[in-house]
Amino acid sequence: MSRLILLLMLLTGYQSFSQENLSIQNIGNRKTYSLNGKWNYIVDPYETGYYNFHLDQYDTRKDFQMGAYYFNYHSPNKQDLVEYDFDKSPVMNIPGDWNSQAKDLFYYEGTVWFKKSFDYSLKAGKRLFLNFGAVNYKTDVYLNGIKLGAHTGGFTSFGFEVSALIKSSNNFLVVKVDNKRQKDAVPSTNTDWWNYGGITRDVTLVETEDTFIEDYSIQLDKQDTTKITGFVKVNNARPNDSVTIKIPELHLFYKTNLTTDSIINFEFFGKNIKYWTPGEPKLYQVLLSYNSQVLEDKIGFRTIATRSGKILLNGQPVFLKGICIHEENARGGRGNSKEDALRLLTWAKELGCNYVRLAHYPHNENIVRLADKMGLLVWEEIPVYWSINFKNPATYQNAENQLKDMITRDKNRASVIIWSMANETPLSAERTKFITDLISVAREKDPTRLISAALLSESKDGIHTINDPLGAYIDLVAFNQYLGWYGGNLEDAEKIKWTSIYDKPLIVSEFGGDAKQGLHGNKYDRWNEEFQEYLYIQNLKMIDKIPNLAGLSPWILVDFRSPRRLLPGIQDGYNRKGLISNEGKKKKAFWIMKKYYGNKR
Ligand code: GCB
């Protein structure tokens, strides 16, 4: 261990180096160094590298603990008892979930430690930040034996400044990841998707100047469609320095000087702005300059609103021809790459979609940026799913953090039109309070987009009613229904009536049924492709009669892994409601949906 590290350990008491998590906007267009690649890992079900035998947590102690894995200790002394060695441990690809990379970790839920060694030469005056796109679920991060901090939540990004700790060679980054499901977590213990563990998105070093643009928002005003508004936030701002925003194609140029505040709010007016639509997803080059630094983004401008039963995109009614998507790479692992995103969104386009519901948690940035380019409207969601502990303030705080992080990252994407707060949550006063509190936060952070949640309905005497009290607080009333799969008779489809007590646009956020691709037979028997095809035909007849219908997103584009789906020979660990199998083969219902969207205006 170097003297510098020992000194830092003494000064900081290991833990206190931790700082507020920092999210830097638009990492892809900055000076970066990727830490993706092969990382050593140690599976640690008893958390031996984290606690001593009396369960004292090593990283809260001030003395040196040889057993603490984050020291990556290699004793020069043969008498020392050191019972781990990252360098002799196996490696796996990062980003990547551990379940699909190591056979013995397929069902594993617990702690795994990861270590990456690297060199980095940081010039004087520059700063360095370490960013994780996402790690599922609880993460503790240590650089060169010092704790940087911790993070909770499996689908949002976080980061730490490492300028003071980085060395020109032999840095070691140790990350403890724990994906044990917990009752008080978000999501809680019961989900219909695989709890993929690990460092599932990119790990990146971001190099900046001493003072730099950390975050910004650039959007079209909701009321005045000639006005572009937003803010720029400068990290370590120096008064009197200037910030400029340029949109060359619109001949727009805005310049302002910083005062003592690190955030400037701006508005300026443009002529002949071409608005972003799925048909013509126009993105403008936007250049943000601060001193000699220039940061580029591609941003689309559009408005989104509702008027009684309609969704209005740039003032015109739009019908959401959608599909739900899980963040899987279609081979049975967490998706993350640009290729994964392209595969999924190309299928959505082929189906005739203008809209995707990215279920049930914030997906990776690649897919959202690609939706911007390909012209697909997006619903984004946080994993407030089924039964979570609505009574626990810490659970609420966790959900709120995930919501804020999702909005922070994707607020400049024109494709994103809906923030969803929850999916199929059970009715109670605590749950309604929990979700309405989230709604207030979302509206405050982003007053421009629509708020929704996937609700359930009540059914009596053939009449289905949407009367969930949340309907009063959301802009877009979405509901899931599974006629012919979890109940109800497909023959009755045309007779079933839907009503809502809210005069708002309704969208069917889920419907569907399973089919094993390649299994054929009569349309009344479950699991056959013909059954799923018939289920779609009948459901669509019913859906067409729903008043104020403004869109739909069948469940789901591709079969996905779920530990709840175990029927041998049919499910084999997959939810088979995909219109496409996990091998990428289309099922018969795919063509029914494609035809429906082809005919829909
Ligand atoms: C639902 C859930 C979704 C499930 C789906 C199913 O209502 O929202 O997460 O995967 O049903 O297949 O049961």
Distinctive features:
16% helix, 35 strands, 7 helices, 601 residues, alpha/beta, disordered N terminus, binds (2S,3S,4S,5R)-3,4,5-trihydroxy-6-oxo-oxane-2-carboxylic acid, 8-stranded parallel β-barrel, 30% strand
Give a nutshell description of this structure.
This protein has 601 residues and is an alpha/beta fold. It is 16% helix and 30% strand.
What does this structure look like?
The chain is globular. The strands form nine sheets. It has an eight-stranded parallel beta barrel with strand order 23-24-25-26-27-30-32-33, surrounded by four helices. α2 packs across α3. By secondary structure, the protein is α/β, with parallel strands linked by helices. Helices cover 16% and strands 30% of the residues. The chain contains seven helices and 35 strands. The structure holds (2S,3S,4S,5R)-3,4,5-trihydroxy-6-oxo-oxane-2-carboxylic acid. (2S,3S,4S,5R)-3,4,5-trihydroxy-6-oxo-oxane-2-carboxylic acid is lined by residues 192, 360, 423-424, 480, 510, 555, 575, 577.
